[in-house]
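Final report, closing paragraph on structural work. Over the funding period we assembled a curated collection of sequence-structure pairs, and we close with a single example.
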Amino acid sequence: MIQRVLNIFRKSKFYLALRYSWLHDLYTQLKYHAFFKHKVAESEMYTQIIKTYLPENPLIFDIGANIGDLSIAFKKAGARVVSVEPDPINLTHLRFRNKKALFTIEPIAIGNIDGQIPFYVHLRDNALSTAKTLNLSDFETTTVESQKMQTLIAKYGIPDFIKIDAEGFEWPILQSLSLPIQMLCFEINFPEFQEEAIHIINHLHTLSPDYKFNISSNDENLSFEKLIDMQVMLSLINNYKGKYAMIFCLLEK
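Its predicted structure, as stored:
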């Protein structure tokens, strides 16, 4: 009951105005300096990736946009951004931060069907909300609209970059992808979704044998100076000792 009241408060105009004020930014920088530095480093990493590998004014799909931190970073890097987010609280934050129409918001999930799918809203941390069936003790079940990736592409065009952070639902999201994309990245938590990561890598290889890869274990920098090939990436996934990684896939032409 208390958590539901807090969730209602987190969607209030008063909370949103405070949450995205300069005062809150200053508080975060002083009280949680390491976290603040991490978020800055994450934005800088993606900005550098965009400027290195993508054309000017690229089209980016931010799948699992959460409250929009990376959508805003993508926009500042000169991209056209489609932010996809089904969680109701995250959507409230995303819309509040989008007053100047920085990006296009799609209040849906991306999956392997066009239609309605179950969605599990985490009661304490909306960054953990997912369409993946997990231990549901800390989740509230709702229903959201789902579209295949190909449906989203038909609406907005072929993106230059797709970022996917869907708490274990990455493989269903990419199953409907039927053409190679210049660059994409997806989150993997180990060991739970190790097999899904292998499915994704193999699927991308069927779309194009020219994909090369990189990885980030901290969302602040890429692990390799040069891109690695598929077999090296698969070996790395099979022997990965960490708990988390963002895998980057680039189509080399």
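The CA atoms of residues 62 and 83 lie 5 Å apart. The chain has one domain: 37-251. We thank the funder for supporting this effort.
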